[in-house]
Write a structure and sequence with these properties.
2 copies of one chain form a homodimer. Chain A folds into 2 domains: 97 residues; 392 residues, Neurolysin, domain 3. In chain A, 64% of the residues lie in helices and 3% in strands. Chain A is built from 21 helices and 3 strands. A 3-stranded mixed β-sheet of chain A has the order 1-3-2, sandwiched between helices. In chain A, helix 1 crosses helix 3, helix 5 packs antiparallel against helix 6 and helix 17 crosses helix 21. At the A-B interface, helix 1 and helix 2 of A face helix 1 and helix 2 of B.
C-alpha cells in the first residue's frame, strides 16, 4: 500500500472517530437541555456505549499501526498531512500508552470522588475530600508518567493545552501576577461602585433572550449553523454546521445571560470558522482550551463590555427594557457591567480579579504535583493566597478550596487555560487595533464583520496547525506575554476607578 | 457454557442493539426538531454510522449463532425466554437471510426512488414514477422470498405486523368494507355539516400548546418520562423513560394540534407502559404498528372526540380561547371535531372515511404483489376505487395515487396497520365498557386513570409476548373483527347524521 493510500485510510478513520465524538456531544447536549428526569439512567448507558465505540475505533490496532507508520515516514508527507499525523499520534500516545488497569482505576476513582466532593462541599468538610484528592494526585501522576512525561504537571497541562509546559505557563503567570496584584490593590483602595443601578430591576426573561440573540447574531453567530437553548450551566458544543450554545437567565439581572451568550457565541464562532474541508481531521479542529477561551473572553469582555459596543447597543437594550433602563445613562450601565471587586467564588469573578483565582489554583496544583504541598495543607495555602492576592478572608472551605468541580473529576492542569486564553485575547486585540485603526468606530456603528474576519483569517482557519503559543505569535508577531492584557486593564479600568 | 449463561449473553447483546437503536432515534428526533440547516450533511453521516454500528452488532456472527442455538433448545427455556428468543430469531431471520447485494440494491433504489417520487408528485407525472415502482415491487418480492415467505405480501405484512398474513388481513378488511361502504354512503346522502363554526377563528398557538399539554397530562402522559416539541410532521419516538412526541400548530384551527397531540400521546403512553425490567429486550418492546395505532387512535378518536371527553374539557378549552369559542355551544364544537365527508387525501381524512383510503391501498398493494395488477394500470384502479368507495373523482395523480410517501420508500404492507389498529381499538373499547360500566361518567368527570390502567394491564405490560391478533383476543375474549368498529361508528355518527 502506498503512503498516500495509507494516509487516505487514516483520514477515513479520523472522520469515523470524530463522528462518534459528535454523537456523544449531541447526546450530552440533549441530556443537559432536554432530557426528562426518568431518561437519565438509559442516557448514561447510551453515553457509555458510544464512548466505548469511539474508544474502540480510536484504538483499532490496525489503524494505530498505520498512524505510527505515517509518523515514521513524516518527511514523505506534505505539510498538511504532517500536522494531521502529528496530532493523531499525540492522541494515540495518550489513548494507548496508559495501562488499561490504570485508566479503569482512574475512571472508577473519579466517579466515586465526584460524589464525595458533592457531600464534602455541602458540609464544608475538606477532611472528607482530602484522601480522595490525594489519590487523584497520585493517579494523575501515574497517568502523566505512563504518557512519557518526566514532569507530571507537563503531561497534564499538555492534555489541555498542547505543547504548554509547567515552565512556559509559570513564566507567563508569574509575570502576570507581579503586575496584576499591585494594580488590583490600587483599584481595591480606590472609590468603589457596584451594579445596584441595574441589578434588582425587572428584566423579563423572554426579552433577555430576544435581545441576546439579536446581539450574537450581529456579532456574527451563524444561526443556520447553530442554535441557542437554555440549560443550568452555559456551555458550547458541536462542530461546524451545528454549533450549539446554552444560556441561563435571571429576571433581576440581565448580565449573566447577556455576557454568557456573548461568551459562548465566542466559542461558537471559532468552531463555525474552522475550515469546512478539514472537518473530522485535526486541521478542522480547534487548537486548545486556551485558544478557545481567547475567543470567548475576547468577545465577552474586550468587545462585549467596551464603551464602543454599548454606544451601538445601548439604544437597543433600552428598547428591550424601557422600564428598567429608561433612567440609566450609558456611562452608568457601562460601569455596572465593569465592576472590579474581590470575591470568593471564581465563576462569579470579574475579568480582572478572575485571573488571580486562576493563578492561585495553578500555584497549588503545581506544588501538589511537584510534591511541594501536602493535600492536608491545601486549605491553609488556599486561604493565605486569597488573603495575599485578593485581600479577602475565606469563611469556610465550601466557598474556598472545595468550590470547583474540576479536581473532583481528576482535572488537574485545566485551570491555567482560562488565563492563557485571557492573555492571548488581549494580545490579539492589540494587534487587531494596530491592523485596523478605525476599529472602535466600526464597533460603535455595529459593524463587527471585519473583526470576525480578522479572527477567521489569523486564528480560526488554521485548525490545529499550530500550538496556542505559536499561533498567537504568528498572528501578532510576538511571543505571548502578560503585557497586552495589563495594558488593556489599565486603559479600561484606570479611568473607571481613577487609578 | 450453560444455556442460562448463553441466554444472559444474548440479553446483553439485545440491550446493546437496543441502545444503538435508541441513539439513532435520538439523533433523528433532533434532526426533525432542532437541527440547523447547515447540520444536515453531517447528521446524515452520523445516522448512517450509528445504523451501521447497530447492524454490525445485530448480525455479529457469534451472537447470531447463540440465538439460533437457543432457538433449537427452545423447550429448555422458560416462557419469558421463549418469547425473547422467538423475537430475536425473527429479527435475525430478516437481518441475515437476504443477500447483502439485494439489501444494498434496495437501499440504493429506494433512495433514488424517493427523489423521483418528489418530482413526479410535484408534476403529477405518474409515468415518470411507474418504472421505479415496478422495480420496487420486484425488489420487495425478492426480499420477501429471501426471508422465506411463499407469498411475498405475507412477508411484507409480517415485517410491519408480526404474524399477520394476506389472508388474515384480507378477511378483516373485506368484512369491514362490506359494512362500511353502505354506511358511509348513507352519511354522504344525509344532511351535511362542516367545521366552519370554529375553523378560521383565532386560536393563539401558545394557548393551543398550553391547553394540549394540559389535556395529555390529564389523560396520563408522564412528563417526567417524556416531552413534547414542535416539528413539521407529528411523530412519537423514544422508549420508556424518555418518550417524545411532536406536534404542529395552525392559528386558525385548533384541531390538528389538539388531536395530533392526543394521538401521539396515545403512542407515548403505550411506550411509557411497557415493563421497566424488560427494557432492551422484546418483552419490553411494543408489539407492532397495528397495536401502536390501536392505542393512538383509541385516545384520539374514541376517547378524544367523544361527548364525555368534551363535557369535561369544554369549559377548559373555552377558558383558553374565550374569543373564538365563547359563542359556540358544546354540541356544535363536538360536531366540528366529528365531521365525516369524502376527501382526496388520506392524511386529512376523518376517522370513518380514513379506513376506505386504507382498504383501497391494501387492495392495490395486494394485487400488485400478486401480479394481478400492472403498475401502469394503477392510476385507473385507484381512481375507480375512489369513485366506488368514496364517491369522489380524482382530479390528478398528485392528489391520487402519488400522494403518499410510503411506496416511494419501498414500504409495501404498511398501510393496513392503520386500519388494523382502528379495529383493535374499537374492540378494546367494547370490552372496556363492559368491564367498567360507569366509564363514560368517569371520563366526563376527567377521571382517565382507570382507563389507562386497563390498557396497562391488558395491553402495555405484555411487550411483544403475543402477536397483535392474539393480544386483542386475550384482552377481549374474541378474535378481532370489524364488528365493534362498525357498532362504534353507528352509535356515534348515526345520531350526528340522522342515519
Amino acid at each position: 500500500m502506498s503512503i498516500a493510500e495509507t494516509y487516505q485510510q487514516v483520514i477515513a478513520w479520523s472522520k469515523d472517530v470524530s463522528l462518534a465524538g459528535a454523537i456523544f456531544e449531541m447526546l450530552d447536549w440533549d441530556l443537559q437541555v432536554n432530557l426528562p428526569k426518568k431518561g437519565f439512567a438509559r442516557r448514561s448507558d447510551q453515553l457509555a456505549w458510544i464512548q466505548g465505540q469511539r474508544h474502540r475505533r480510536l484504538t483499532d490496532k490496525e489503524m494505530v499501526a498505520k498512524v505510527y507508520e505515517l509518523a515514521d515516514r513524516m518527511n514523505e508527507l506534505d505539510a498538511d498531512a504532517q500536522v494531521n499525523v502529528r496530532e493523531w499520534k499525540r492522541a494515540l500516545d495518550r489513548a494507548t500508552k496508559a495501562p488499561v488497569e490504570l485508566v479503569e482505576e482512574i475512571a472508577r476513582h473519579n466517579s466515586l470522588t465526584q460524589g464525595v466532593w458533592i457531600e464534602a462541599r455541602k458540609n464544608s468538610d475538606f477532611a472528607k475530600f482530602a484522601p480522595y484528592l490525594e489519590k487523584t494526585v497520585d493517579l494523575q501522576k501515574q497517568l502523566a508518567s505512563a504518557w512519557g512525561f518526566a514532569r507530571p504537571y507537563d503531561g497534564l497541562l499538555d492534555a489541555n493545552e498542547p505543547f504548554a509546559t509547567e515552565a512556559s505557563i509559570r513564566a507567563l503567570l508569574d509575570d502576570l501576577k507581579a503586575r496584576l496584584v499591585p494594580f488590583l490593590h490600587r483599584i481595591f483602595g480606590a472609590k468603589q461602585y457596584d451594579a445596584s443601578p441595574i441589578v434588582g430591576r425587572n428584566f423579563p426573561v423572554d426579552k433577555q433572550r430576544e435581545f441576546g440573540l439579536a446581539v450574537i447574531g450581529k456579532l456574527g453567530f451563524d444561526f443556520d449553523g447553530g442554535r441557542q437553548d437554555v440549560s443550568a450551566h452555559p456551555f458550547c458544543t458541536g462542530t461546524k454546521g451545528d454549533v450549539r450554545i446554552t444560556s441561563r437567565f435571571f429576571a433581576d439581572d440581565p448580565r449573566p445571560s447577556l455576557f454568557g451568550m456573548i461568551h459562548e457565541a465566542g466559542h461558537a464562532m471559532y468552531e463555525q470558522g474552522l475550515p469546512d474541508d478539514r472537518l473530522g481531521t485535526p486541521l478542522g479542529e480547534s487548537v486548545s482550551l486556551g485558544v478557545h477561551e481567547s475567543q470567548s473572553r475576547f468577545w465577552e469582555n474586550i468587545v462585549g463590555r467596551s464603551i464602543p459596543m454599548w454606544r451601538y447597543f445601548y439604544p437597543e437594550i433600552k428598547k428591550a427594557f424601557p422600564a428598567a433602563l429608561g433612567d440609566v445613562p450609558l456611562e452608568t450601565f457601562h460601569r455596572c457591567v465593569n465592576v472590579v471587586a474581590p470575591s470568593l467564588i471564581r465563576v462569579e469573578a470579574d475579568e480582572a480579579t478572575y485571573n488571580l483565582h486562576i493563578i492561585l489554583r495553578f500555584e497549588i496544583e503545581r506544588a501538589l504535583l511537584a510534591g511541594e504541598l501536602r493535600v492536608a495543607d491545601l486549605p491553609a495555602a488556599w486561604n493565605a493566597k486569597m488573603k495575599e492576592y485578593l485581600d479577602i478572608a475565606v469563611p469556610n472551605d465550601a466557598e474556598g478550596v472545595l468550590q470547583d468541580v474540576h479536581w473532583s473529576l481528576g482535572s488537574l492542569g485545566y485551570f491555567p487555560t482560562y488565563t492563557i486564553g485571557t492573555l492571548y485575547g488581549a494580545q490579539l486585540w492589540d494587534k487587531i487595533r494596530a491592523d485596523m485603526p478605525g476599529l472602535e468606530a466600526l464597533i460603535a456603528r455595529g459593524e463587527f464583520a471585519p473583526l470576525l474576519e480578522w479572527l477567521r483569517q489569523h486564528i480560526h482557519r488554521y485548525g490545529k496547525r499550530y500550538g496556542g503559543d505559536e499561533l498567537i505569535e504568528r498572528a501578532t508577531g510576538k511571543k505571548p506575554t502578560a503585557e497586552p492584557f495589563m495594558n488593556y486593564l489599565r486603559e479600561k479600568f484606570g479611568p473607571l476607578y481613577g487609578v
